[in-house]
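user: can you give me the structure for this one chain? tokens are fine.
assistant: on it. calling the predictor now.
[tool input]
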Amino acid sequence: MKNLFPLLLYIGDTRTYRVIFTKGTGRAKQPMSIEDKIVVFTAKENNAIPDSEALQKRISVHTDAPGGVTSITLTSADTLSLREGVYQCDITIFDLDGNRLKTYAEGELHVHVSPTQSVTLE
């Protein structure tokens, strides 16, 4: 998971991040099942901003839940509402009742404006 952060994206782009949840360390590291779990990705310009105003993605259908693999997709619609800058973000695991189980990782999301704003193809 440490290799996931910092994340980089351009405003208006769609980006998918593959996340593999593990438990243990070194040779004892193994997949951590996320069956019957909701993974929440939250990004905010600063931690004082309420979650209701943050970019949040809730993932309940996983790529490989027993193997601890999910995908977090930030769509073009999600990223158009962002401003250029560095956002604080985390990935948190909840049970199906909404109980917070664990903040799995935290880091930064670097949001940039693309030099290309529009193109006319002739």
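assistant: here you go. The mean pLDDT is 93. The chain has one domain: 2-112.
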